[in-house]
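Hey team,

Filing this mostly as a record. A colleague (T.K.) asked me to run one chain through the structure pipeline before their review meeting, and I want the input and output archived in the tracker in case anyone asks later how it was produced. No errors, nothing strange. Just documentation.

Input sequence:
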Amino acid sequence: MSAFRPGILPSLVVAVLLPLLVTLGFWQLSRAEEKRALLAQHEVSQQAAPVSLTELEQRRDLNAVRIRLRGQFDVAHSLLLDNRTHNGQAGVELLQPFYDQASGLWVLLNRGWLAWPDRRTPPQFTTPEQPLELVGQVYLPPGTSFQLQADQPGNGWPRLVTRIEPEPLWQQLGRGGLAYEVRLESGPASYLAQWPVVAMSPEKHTGYAVQWFALAAALCGLYLYLGWRNAREQHHEHNHESPQHPL
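Output structure:
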């Protein structure tokens, strides 16, 4: 080990950063695998036939399950989910209660994205008043559940919200309804219904993992270089200071 003298400070830095970088790399790889599993699950659910709300209650895994609805929209109570962008354009998502006649339950149906270019003018939309047969997918948000934004005095309908959870809405309206948001599939009653399955693709996670591992490799290379350089410098100084013996 006399030919390798990295020093105390570089050794401490490497001891702290190297495990962190490697851990981050493997974490990104695990996230990539999770996203692949989600995409595979979504692909399977897309091929499955839609079920009724009665059949939905018998299932354990509800996320992305396609459901079949027949009933009418509640025109009077609409929610506009704010801060939703599409291709860099500001907008909202339109959510409306939908009464399913077969089950007698209400469903908070997300009809898709609407552009909102001017905040001074409310976004315009229309609502079918006739009975409809629709197909949607149950959406379970990852992480923290959505919550209904606190009402402001005099706040009417349509109501602009930043977060939403169906159950408080049903309590507010005095109705029995599904506790999950349902995203409408593309059709005559939908607006822009291009729902991303995952926020970040598995390929991006893999790319980030490669970056973390590359940083770890660069850190190791720099550590080795400093250790060998310091050893050579110390060896050179030692030889220079050694007394010269006369012949």
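Quick notes for T.K.: Helices lie at 8-47, 53-56, 166-173, 202-241. The longest helix spans residues 8-47.
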